[in-house]
From TrEMBL:
It comes from the Bacteria. This is Fused response regulator/phosphatase. It comes from Kitasatospora herbaricolor. Residues 13-134 form the Response regulatory domain. Keywords: Hydrolase, Phosphoprotein.
Length: 538
């Protein structure tokens, strides 16, 4: 059978349900002469059974149902067709030689029919009604199918943009392509380190498969593809054998030809290649598939840009931290700084150790918020802290001046900070806290306690209480840190602080191993940067 030019008017399989043999024969003859395939039933039960058993090309696309049937009315047949999710889309045309009143036609249409014809029926009117019903039903199914595929495309977009790395990106893109095209799919791309990542799947819902093959396959595919088309896409069509030999990927065996769409975001950027059987790209499906390829290329480009920006921002963050720690008699210092985890925004945590006229001032703080702006404020605040400290102010006075600095230059920004002044020749330290997690002091015998001198967060304009003096025996260890070390989602901060205190009490005496051990225990999976400053007070 040759299809007509307009797919909405193409021939179809039509179910004719009529108990009158002559009437059924006439209707079926008209349909067959117009190119349609016909399935015939003499009553409602037989017609419904044919619908339930039909599969593939034999499944009717339209039903012509007589109103007066021996076992049930045509209205009931129509209602059962429309009530079944598998056949609800099927257009139903009622025909009748007896139920020809306006109320009959209205009842048929109200109960689900798409058209109602009364005999005598002209062949042209009947076939025109069939064509119109098919055209409408096919257009509706096509729109529903497109809406479903766009929903899949949206979900795949979210998935690939959320990929953790190149391998997970390839697996998610292959699964998304298979779901979108209802076919086997494969993906080749370069990860953020320039290595080829590949994944394939045998169809929707199947797990990803890795495959090997020749090196630099992307370059070979780019050479074999057609000139650029659309927005940054190119197409290569290979035989399934050629594809398998080139890539080592066997998911397309027996599919004939493989269509590969390569997409790149701009000249010079590595492409992303998505492949499916060529037969899957019928109608408007190719445009959806090309859009998915562009989406994947943009997702990888976004990851590259984010890595580059994070690298620059981390480099900037490092420049705002001390390049070295001072050497002060009787005080050994060790510091550890761990930037926020990959994929998270930058934090504003900082540390400082500066010699002042009154002794060695140790400081740890954190700008509230996660952004490059927080890093910039951190750098400025640290420089201001150094300037106020070398003027010889006590810790609480330094906090007052930092508060005024924020109010003047960064209103609305809040910062937590803890300052500890180690005075030379004294067995004590001065502690001033501005809403920061308290430091831990460990005595030489291993007993450890928090120095809980809470004060007002910087940036709120409140006065800061006099620094509190704490006795410190020779050989004691003092640890200052940011809350990134102990804060865990869903857990109260006090639990983390207590767990840290116990670990410090049990930890080694040497500062380096002590700090490394704490990071091993507490830093994994943290989403905030961590500053850890340890001092041995001898």
């Amino acid at each position: 059978m040759t299809e007509q030019a307009n797919p909405d008017s193409a021939a179809a399989t039509v179910l004719v349900v009529d108990d009158d043999d002559t009437s059924r024969y006439i209707l079926a003859s008209w349909l067959r002469r117009d190119g349609h395939r016909v399935a015939e039933a003499a009553d409602g039960a037989q017609g419904l059974a044919l619908l339930a058993a039909a599969t593939g090309a034999d499944r009717p696309e339209l039903a012509v149902v007589d109103v007066n049937l021996p076992d049930m009315s045509g209205f009931q047949v129509c209602e059962r067709i429309k009530a079944d999710p598998l056949t609800a889309h099927l257009p139903v045309i009622h025909v009748s030689a007896t139920a020809i009143e306006v109320n009959d036609r209205a009842q048929g249409l109200y109960r689900g029919a798409d058209a109602y014809l009364t005999e005598p029926i002209a062949p042209t009117e009947f076939l025109a009604t069939v064509t119109a019903a098919l055209r409408y039903a096919r257009a509706r199914r096509r729109a529903e199918r497109l809406a479903g595929r766009i929903a899949v495309l949206n979900q795949v977009t979210l998935d690939v943009y959320g990929a953790r790395d190149g391998r997970s990106f390839a697996a998610l893109a292959a699964a998304g392509a298979a779901a979108l095209m209802s076919a086997p799919a494969a993906v080749l791309a370069l990860d953020l380190d320039g290595r080829e990542v590949r994944a394939a799947t045998g169809g929707p819902g199947e797990g990803p498969r890795r495959f090997g093959g020749a090196a630099a396959v992307l370059g070979v595919l780019a050479d074999a593809s057609a000139p650029q088309e659309g927005t940054g896409t190119r197409t290569a069509v290979l035989t399934a054998e050629r594809w398998t030999g080139l890539t080592g990927c066997e998911v397309f065996e027996g599919t004939g030809q493989v269509a590969v769409i390569l997409a790149r975001t701009s000249p010079g950027r590595p492409p992303v290649a998505l492949a499916v059987p060529a037969r899957a790209l019928g109608g408007g499906d190719r445009d959806l598939f090309a859009q998915l390829a562009r989406t994947c290329a943009l997702a990888l480009e976004a990851q590259r840009s984010l890595r580059e920006e994070q690298g620059l921002a981390l480099a900037l963050q490092r420049t705002f931290l001390p390049s070295r720690l001072p050497s002060s008699p009787g005080v050994d210092l060790t510091v550890r700084y761990v930037p926020a985890g990959a994929g998270t925004e930058l934090g504003g945590g900082f540390y400082e150790a500066v010699e002042t006229p009154g002794g060695l001032l140790l400081a740890v703080g954190d700008v509230v918020g996660h952004s490059l702006a927080a890093v910039v404020v951190m750098g400025e605040l640290r420089q201001a802290l150094r300037a106020y400290a070398i003027e010889g102010h006590e810790p609480h006075v330094v906090l007052d001046r930092l508060d005024a600095f924020l109010a003047q230059f960064h209103p609305g920004v809040t910062v937590t900070a803890c300052l500890v002044l180690v005075e030379p020749g004294r067995r004590s330290v001065l502690v001033a806290d501005a809403g920061h997690v308290p430091p831990v002091l460990r005595d030489p015998d291993g007993a450890a306690r928090h120095l809980t001198e809470h004060g007002v967060v910087l940036g709120l304009g409140g006065a800061h209480a006099q620094a509190v003096r704490h006795p410190v025996p020779a050989g004691a260890t003092l640890l200052l840190f940011t809350d990134g070390l102990v804060e865990a989602p869903g857990e109260h901060l006090d639990r983390g602080l207590e767990a840290l205190r116990r670990r410090i009490a049990e930890g080694p005496r040497e500062l380096g191993p002590l700090c490394d051990g704490l990071l091993d225990l507490f830093a994994e999976g943290q989403q905030d940067d961590i500053a850890l400053l340890a001092a041995r007070l001898d």
